[in-house]
Amino acid sequence: MTIHTVIADNQAIFRAGAARVLSAEVDIRIVGQCDQPQRLTEMTTTMRGCVVLAARALITDLPALSASAKDASSRLIVLTERDEVLRSEEYALIDGLLCRHTNGTRLVECVRRVGAGERMVTRPVSTMRSTDAVGTRVLARLNHRELQIVGYIVRGCKNREIADEIGTKEQVVKNYLRTIYDKTGVSDRLELALFTLHHPVLADAASKVTDPALRLQTA
Q: What is this structure's pTM?
């Protein structure tokens, strides 16, 4: 059985990474992607028999989206941010629940099991976040400029856009990226983005130095 899957997420890097991971499986086929709430609603209504993988940030009306999925004989997996908790009544409306920062193995497992008719919805237990030793170690290796570039990569920016943001040349950004790849042990920008998203300490720090409201003064 082929599991037809729709990916709805407002982060281009995450969509690309999730699509690459899922498309590598012979029994999973990506039939649609989107990054807007309205398009998510349209695709859920018109595309039948799918597993809809949707970021909570794109869902404006979960009861309505859940009803549309059921009417289309589809099943709904919600992606949440770290430490994001759904309201009590929302858990019954979905078929799967994943943190956006989950690993590829867990993502594939959830899509397969939900596609087979199972539910994978576990309410989070209030616990202290485990220490992210790898993320902390990599963060210590990066200087402020490198961390900025990591943040823009996660946001899906191209080299030219990053150069404009930090006031430098595109070639300089490429040079920084080579150093960043060496320090993080990845080989390309997609792997860098996924690596960052999987390590909360690094992801949080990169987000802060690229958020216009929180951006630190350039070193």
A: 0.68
